[in-house]
Design a protein that fits this description.
The chain is α+β, with helices and mostly antiparallel strands. A hairpin with an 8-residue loop joins strand 1 (about 70) and strand 2 (about 80-90). The protein has helices at about 30-50, 55-65, 135-145, and strands spanning about 70, 80-90, 90-95, 105, 115-125, 130-135. The protein starts with about 30 loop residues before the first helix and ends with a helix. It contains three helices and six strands. The chain has one domain.
Amino acid sequence: MPHDHHHHDGDHHAHDHNHHPTGAHMHSHMHDVDMAAELQILCDQFIDGFCSAKDKMSYLRLAGVPLEKTPFGGGPSLKLVDVHLTTEWQVGTASPSFGSRELSYLPYPGQMVTERTNMGLVYVSLEAKQITDIRDFILHKQAAERAAP
């Protein structure tokens, strides 16, 4: 199954003009494009590896996925209980229009429709539930590796 991971949830990393309601990201940076492409490849490989792994828990451990986390704001630790995959198909694009509050919309012809799959790590405690997007996990892991001596 092909994985085309676009950043579609309004998160704080790479640009996806399809999902920003304001014109705040109307610029582009080649560095950001390169980082987004690298992140897409890493996510594709991570998801493919997880799907094909015979021992899913060993795969997660080897990848450094924490089985427990401290929740934002404190409280009892969160335990990893689920890994979920979501598949979506991008059927068009929308971007800010110059001088208008309306989005410029371009539906795709059939051959341009792309499938994308994403992964979420679901952590729970008696008080909270937190879903960590695999892109966030990979970005944080990369940042930690760069910061290590």
